[in-house]
Amino acid sequence: MRHLFRFRCALSSRRWIQLIFEDPKSSRCPEAHLYSTVTWYHSYLQKASPKYRQEKKIQRVNILQDPGIPIVDRLSRNELIELLKNSIVYREGALLALSKPCGLSITGQEPSLNTLLPDLRKALCLSETPHIVTAAQRDLSGLVLLSNCHQTTRIIEAAILQARKAQIPVATYWAVTVGTLHPSEGEIKMPLKISRIHERQLVIPAPDPAPGNLQRKEVKKAVTRYRVLDSAEGCSLVQLQPLSTFQDQLRVHLSVKLSPALGDHVYSSRVGCILGVPISLPVDSVEPHPQVGVDKIQMGVHLTFSSC
């Protein structure tokens, strides 16, 4: 956990941590001047000057105005095509994978990924228009798998279905959590259902559901396999592998374990704290609100956040 380790040590010796982790070939690192006409200590003294620090002072950014990620509603159709074209992470044979931005719906009214596929085919010079095999939800960023061969799609869908029946994970996620999950490895088995709370459709845990609720599919069994990869300064890097599919499953399961995902402004409000000990709050008594008390962790993983 490079960033978390850097944050842990930066409190006492940030200068040396920067020296260790910065690219030696970068002109920002003193080691880059060891064999140049500028001595390394001259560069160091220059950086230590008040004028240099004033010029390099980080400006606060309002994430509501400039969140640092593409805003789909603000992009034209051509800009969206260019964004998708530059987001390709895998391309071989009939398969194509790209990183979908948050806010781009899969189907429905424009702009949607499905309506953009014909233009994407022209931009990539494909022989046929690809179709969607798997994709992340509208409000999430994530990988989208496309294919222009229906036979290949059927093979992939059959393999995914077989893997799920055998309880083999078909997707792996990583999340930074507030707090540490105990034990450090295991499975979260908590049925889920969708309920209307405070005028919003939210996912809530449904422990010990009645057989009738399961048969009517009012409640669905949900299982998430997890493993804590590392921990530091009140947060953890966690690997998550869902063995079922349900809306917001990972975020709700993390809140059930009293370690909500960093940046979860919906379900993290269900985790309270008394004398430093996290507790679970009744889901119908709390409304979703921006996550609080995580400034130190945000700084540790180098996230820019707004003061408003």
SSE topology sketch:
Layout: H1 2-21, H2 40-48, H3 50-55, H4 77-85, E1 88-92, E2 95-100, H5 113-124, E3 131-134, E4 142-147, H6 150-165, E5 173-178, E6 185-189, E7 192-197, E8 200-205, H7 211-215, E9 223-232, E10 235-242, H8 249-256, E11 271-274, E12 277-280, H9 295-300
Antiparallel strand pairs: 1-2, 2-4, 3-4, 5-10, 6-9, 7-8, 9-10, 11-12
Helix pairs in contact: 4-5
Notes on the structure:
Mean pLDDT is 77; it is low at 1-45. This protein is globular. It is of the alpha+beta class. It has helices at residues 2-21, 40-48, 50-55, 77-85, 113-124, 150-165, 211-215, 249-256, 295-300, and strands at 88-92, 95-100, 131-134, 142-147, 173-178, 185-189, 192-197, 200-205, 223-232, 235-242, 271-274, 277-280. The protein has a four-stranded antiparallel beta sheet with strand order 1-2-4-3, covered by helices on one side. It has a four-stranded antiparallel beta sheet with strand order 5-10-9-6. It has three domains: 2-55, no CATH class; 72-165, Pseudouridine synthase; 173-300, 2-Layer Sandwich (Pseudouridine synthase), CATH 3.30.2350. α4 packs across α5. β1 and β2 (95-100) form a beta hairpin. The chain is built from nine helices and twelve strands. Helix content is 30%, strand content 23%. InterPro entries: PsdUridine_synth_cat_dom_sf (IPR020103), PsdUridine_synth_RsuA/RluA (IPR006145), RluA_PseudoU_synthase (IPR050188). One of its GO terms (molecular function) is pseudouridine synthase activity.
